[in-house]
Amino acid sequence: MAANYWASSQRLHWQMSRQRLAEVRSALDAQDPKTVQQYPLPELRHLSIYFNSQIARLGRRMQTRQQALATAQLYIRRFYTKVPIRDTNPYLVMATCLYLALKMEECPQHIRIVVSEARTCWPDVMPSDTAKLAECEFYLISEMNSYLIVHHPYRTLQDLTPVLSLTSEENNTSWQVINDSCLTDLPLLYPPHIIALTAIFLSVVLKTSLPQTNIHAAASSAVAANSSGSGGNSGGGGAYGASGQGPQARIGKLIEWYAESKVDMEAVIECTQEIISLYEAWESFTPSAEKNCKDQLCRMIKARGIV
Amino acid sequence: MQRAEDREVDDKDDRGGGRPGLLTSTSTIFNTTTPAQRPPSKRKREDTHNEEGDEGEDEQEEEDRGERGLHEEIMPPYKSKVRVLEEYQIIGFISSGTYGRVYKARSKLPGNTKEYAIKKFKPDKEGEVIQYTGISQSACREMALCSELSHENVIHLHEIILEDKCIYMVFEYAEHDLLQIVHYHSHPERRPIPEATIKSVLWQLLNGVSYLHQNWVLHRDLKPANIMVTATGEVKIGDLGLARLFWKPLQSLYTGDKVVVTIWYRAPELLLGSKHYTAAIDLWAVGCIFAELLALRPIFKGEEAKMEKKSTVPFQRNQMQKIIEILGSPSKERWPAVTQQPEYNQLQTFKQYPNNLEAWYHQIGATNALGFQLLSGLLNYDPTQRLTAQSALEHPYFSEGAKLTLNAFEGQSFDYPHRRVSQDDNDISLPGTKRSGLPDDSLGGSRAKRLKEG
After folding, report:
1. What EC number(s) is this enzyme filed under (chain B) (predicted)?
2. CATH number of the A5-150+286-304 domain
3. C-beta atoms surrounding B146 within 10 Å
4. Which domain holds residue B108?
5. Helix (H) or strand (E) run with residue B60 in it
6. pTM of the complete model
7. Which pLDDT tens digit goes with each residue over B217-261?
8. Residue B228: strand pairing partners
9. Cβ-contact B237, B19 below 8 angstroms
10. Which residue of chain A is at minimal alpha-carbon distance from B23?
11. Residue A132: closest CA among B33, B124, B42
12. Counts of helices then strands in chain B (DSSP H, E)
């Protein structure tokens, strides 16, 4: 339930294995291979990045809190494990997910505001009729089996920040990595605390101001360092944030704490790799790739008449 | 006895979060433009789940698309996979409120003999052609929370069906509720509820509230009409339409809903305009319910000052007066933070009263000293000192004296009437029409409604 992830609908009904997720998706494609072939769409990571940027645009227009955006993104991801994307207008779905997420995160916006802001963002493809969005809301809730309460990694991060003496920079970076995890399948695959622990791990390993291009290398080496043994650099006591400790010692301490807390390190490493793949995809998400996303979606929507 | 129990959910939602007009919920959101006429579409939702979808149909779709042209609005219409009337046989109509109507039903599945209460949220628009208007926040909360919660003292949600622009929440059926039980014991003559029953009801109620609070859920509308009791004496907290999570909310609880809890059960910190109230408001309501089970009438039966403007919440002077008359003046000694309450100035204008709770307790004929202790602990002015659900459960009132049972009716032989179910108004598929101002209680209410509607 709300306080207990292990008894939550998220854990019981909306978490699946990677293999299961792949099966679900290919089964959706198999329903109508002709249409899938006829309307090619960008690879999932690029599509996710594109959706994220679009929903963030819409969110910004309404000063939406990050947590509501994260909820909306997870709704989108859940919905598209049940419904073939080509049967929908993804812009309407995005706006609907945000509309519902705003209500669930207790910062609601009037349906007319959401529709009119969405129209401003996507004038060609967003229906102006509020009834369309409201109908889509039925569809969305029905496909999610009314399981609307979402557990996010932010809470674990907040709880662990004092425990692990995270600096505010580390906390910020972790927060951003959690935001980034919303662009991946991780929220469908792993419990939120694992994602939070991954974000913290990355933030400590990567230091804060590394440009994105270096994240991959730094993270890979950290993963390597981690698997080569955690006992090596545990010298020195004191708080985690204490200066005078080398970064390696700090990482060592963190890994030690993870080990003592019986954190599923395998899962953390898998999540780390997923995040790194996202950053790689991000690098290849050029303006032309973005335009390609937009054009392919637009073509699909218009040709299929599902504006 | 006419009870001022009408729900305020919709109104409250309308008052909305500090953004006047934004949350005017769905009741005022109608699209002024006529939606584009949908051409008949062969493409149904089911097609996507149809594994045998043959070529012929695909071609037909292509044609359809061609006919539609490029810019018509034809996202496939939403269709429910489950239909209420295919799954359930409606036995009759139970009650109605601003949210919609409740029906008693039986499953059509062979072998399933259980009974259900189906809560149908009315589409907001009345008459004419019903349109999708966006689901009220209250309905969203109730759907989300009920889907998540699972506890023996919280009403169990069987399923939710979203069909034909209506939401149907299918709950387990409970034969009684506390409002009806209190009424039975006070009419025509007064027959006190046995102590063992009160003890069992209160313990189960606290057990449910404790579960809600452990899960960061505030109920915010506890009152006798919302506390169900099954035929086998199990207490089930119902109606989570005002409930919400209170774990580090993005906005203060006050910003979301300016007024919560039916007036007679509203905690003093709410009456004094507290913006950051806590789970203690539910325990105050439990205290009021405990008192009502003992006295067979509401302990603080104030008159509600109506909202004049949507934006301002009036000070509920009469309700505060009723509380002060029994509990005495809320001094700084009894409630250190009272001076920080937004409406503290109002308090200065009240006459001073001593604490008369003990006298009240004896006057209604109650004698159990531990019961009095527990009641005082629940009706503590200071929300930080008020008993929590957990501490109340551990109170000696439950461990001493008459044995605590989990069947509230054990050892007694009262013949409580069954929930009134009306036969002649049981067409669940009719659009719900708004019956504003009518109480949504489950006792006598339907009779009154019949008269008014007839």
Report:
1. 2.7.11.22, 2.7.11.23
2. 1.10.472.10
3. 24
4. 84-173
5. helix B55-68
6. 0.81
7. 999 999 999 999 999 999 999 999 888 888 766 566 666 676 778
8. B177, B236
9. no
10. A110
11. B33
12. 16, 10
